[in-house]
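Next comes one such specimen:
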Amino acid sequence: MFGESIAKAIDGEAALIAAAGQPWLSDPNSYKGSGEKDPNGIAANAPGSKLDAGKAGAFQGLIGYFPQALLAVATVSTFGAGKYTWGGWRTVPNGVKRYSDAMVRHLIYEGQGETTDKDSELLHAAHTAWNALARLELMLNEGWGGD
C-alpha cells in the first residue's frame, strides 16, 4: 500500500515535470539541450560533460588575469563601506552619471601626477576601476546596451 502511494507520487511528479517542459529532470537521458556544448565534444548526458563551451571564463579571465587589481578594487569597496555603507552605492540617485564623474575625477588626479587618493591613501587607478565597475553594474541593471 505504502509502496503504491510512493510509486503514484513519483509518477505524478514525473508527469508534472514533463508537463512543465523539463522532462530531463525525471529522465536525464532525454535532455536535448539548448545549443549548449561541451568544449571537448562530450555528449550532454555522458559522464564528464560540462556544457560550458563559449561561456565566459570568469575565474580564469577575471581572477586569474587581474588578482592584484581586483584586490585593490575590493580594498576601495571596503574603504567606501566604512565611509558610507555596504551596498549604499546601488541606491545613489543618478548613480551612472555620478560614478562616471567620480571615475573621471580620479583619472584627472592621476593625470596630474597624483597617484594616490588623499582621503583613502589608495591608488587613484583602483578608485577609477571601482567607479567604472559601479557605473557598469548600474547600467546593466538599468538595461543599458540594448540599442
Remarks:
- The first helix runs from residue 2 to 19.
